[in-house]
């Protein structure tokens, strides 16, 4: 399970963005979280991805409560979760060629030897040609860069995926292609998904169930 239990989070403990957020995702399940812009969905996505420490409440991954945050959550828990954000240019190092961007988590976890094979495999899955793999972020489109960011999120074979407005900047055909990549991965690996967004039609079609922000969060 990926569990958030009565979580409070924000950027200033005196004025949290939300209080009392609870959400549970079962292995293999795809859950969409819908809410208006600015309500706190990205903050919640970052908490669920263990990238943002909550001010109160409990977060647990596969039965293990996340403890021992110093500036980051423990790495073995973080690497169980792949994350894709809305704006690929904000999460991609502009100096790295796409092949190195995809391989980055393998390098950081000391698994460099697997990199070439894994990158080739994911590039095929994500629809990136070898010409594109040799380019840097400023030499590709948003859609091509987001394909690489999705491949990076899958490279460590996470049991959980958090997609925060992954397709908000993309056209319909790239959106459909990226959703298909996520779904193929989930079916192969039994991975659970939290897809956060504001596009009800997309999330209802994509996910097993959708939650309304107002139902899973007591606003601060
Ligand atoms: P959503 O994803 O639903 O649009 P966000 O989680 O991005 O909402 O933002 C929720 C609130 O937190 C907003 O008021 C936003 O201005 C604020 N916020 C987001 N990121 C930061 C940050 N890094 N520092 C301070 N406030 C932030
Ligand atoms: P460290 O444990 O050294 O602090 P980091 O938190 O910087 O490690 O990152 C761990 C690995 O996760 C890095 O290789 C980083 O590239 C990778 N990573 C960063 N962003 C994402 C993402 N959106 N999806 C998947 N992996 C990511």
UniProtKB/TrEMBL annotation:
Stretch forming the signal peptide: none
Keywords annotated in UniProt: ATP-binding, Nucleotide-binding, Transport
Annotated transmembrane regions: none
Gene3D superfamilies on file: P-loop containing nucleotide triphosphate hydrolases
Listed GO MF terms: ATP binding
Keyword Metal-binding: no
Entry-linked InterPro entries: AAA+_ATPase, ABC_transp_ATP-bind, ABC_transporter-like_ATP-bd, P-loop_NTPase
Residues of the ABC transporter domain: 2-220
Pfam families, A to Z: ABC_tran
Tagged with keyword Nucleotide-binding: yes
Family from the record: Belongs to the ABC transporter superfamily.
Protein name: ATP-binding cassette domain-containing protein
Organism field: Streptomyces lavendulocolor
């Amino acid at each position: 399970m990926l569990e958030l239990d009565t979580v409070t989070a924000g950027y200033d403990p005196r004025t949290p963005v939300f209080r009392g957020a609870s959400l549970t995702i079962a292995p293999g399940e795809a859950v969409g979280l819908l809410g208006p812009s600015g309500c706190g969905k990205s903050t919640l996505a970052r908490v669920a991805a263990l990238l943002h420490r909550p001010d109160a409440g409990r977060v647990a991954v596969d039965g293990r409560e996340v403890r021992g945050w110093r500036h980051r959550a423990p790495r073995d828990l973080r690497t169980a979760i792949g994350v894709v954000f809305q704006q690929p240019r904000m999460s991609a190092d502009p100096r790295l060629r796409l092949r190195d961007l995809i391989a980055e988590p393998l390098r950081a976890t000391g698994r460099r030897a697997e990199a070439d094979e894994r990158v080739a495999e994911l590039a095929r899955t994500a629809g990136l040609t070898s010409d594109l793999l040799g380019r840097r972020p400023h030499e590709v489109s948003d859609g091509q860069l987001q394909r690489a960011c999705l491949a990076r999120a899958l490279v460590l074979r996470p049991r959980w995926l958090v997609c925060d407005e992954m397709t908000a900047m993309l056209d319909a055909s790239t959106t459909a292609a990226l959703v298909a990549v996520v779904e193929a991965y989930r079916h192969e690996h039994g991975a659970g998904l939290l897809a956060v967004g504001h596009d009800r039609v997309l999330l209802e079609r994509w996910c097993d169930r959708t939650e309304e922000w107002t139902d899973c969060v007591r606003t601060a």
